[in-house]
């Protein structure tokens, strides 16, 4: 791939390739300050890297997970790391010591996704047991179980104000939930197949969803109305990311491309990034958008930055 752009269109020219995992890398996450990168894989390793140098800070296989680790997220302060696994648990670990601070148990199926609320007090988890669960980070106690889905739950995302949670499922629906009451606010119907990715815009007014049906859909979060159906990918969409200013949204699919869509231009596709050697499973951006990290099925992590 000749180059990669951040959603603000600034070209990032330098790149690093991080090697070490011996299995598909399911997910990557950047700490809020952009200094630490975490990655998880079906080799069951959780690795921490210096995002600026690419040097590995540490690796753990003894944090308690006994099966593939599918998702990793930093808490808003960067102190804790949450990991979700096929062993049906979520682990909250101290980033500096690796100590497991809390183990969240209760799901009866693989846990595919986990997200911290914006204030860091709550964790949402998505599972093959058809449920979404909300947990208290401090105590580890279960707050609510959201039961309306009728298929595996693939992804969850908090709105920027933390008042709404979105979840996607193999039942081809997206549910918007009130995080205080646990009530369903909207049921978004339109995708023709399993929905693998979901993301709120930075102002919380839009929701983007990506599906195995190859479509990227944009929804109004207040009314639940469908605003746009964006077509162009020739494979299932796995990843969605909004730019920090909300003007662009990027989608990655099994067609080995990343497409960048411009919100101010009616969500026209303004860039197609090619050259990947495998499915892009995760993308993460630093808050200043000077760093883009992605991973694909080649078992490596690529860091593109302006530095």
TrEMBL record:
Keyword match Repeat: yes
Entry-linked CDD domains: WD40
Keyword annotations from UniProtKB, A to Z: Repeat, WD repeat
Repeat keyword on record: yes
Pfam families: Beta-prop_EML_2, WD40
WD repeats: 18-59, 62-103, 104-145, 146-187, 188-229, 230-261, 273-307
Domain of life: Eukaryota
All copies of domain EML-like second beta-propeller, residue ranges: 118-264
Protein name: EML-like second beta-propeller domain-containing protein
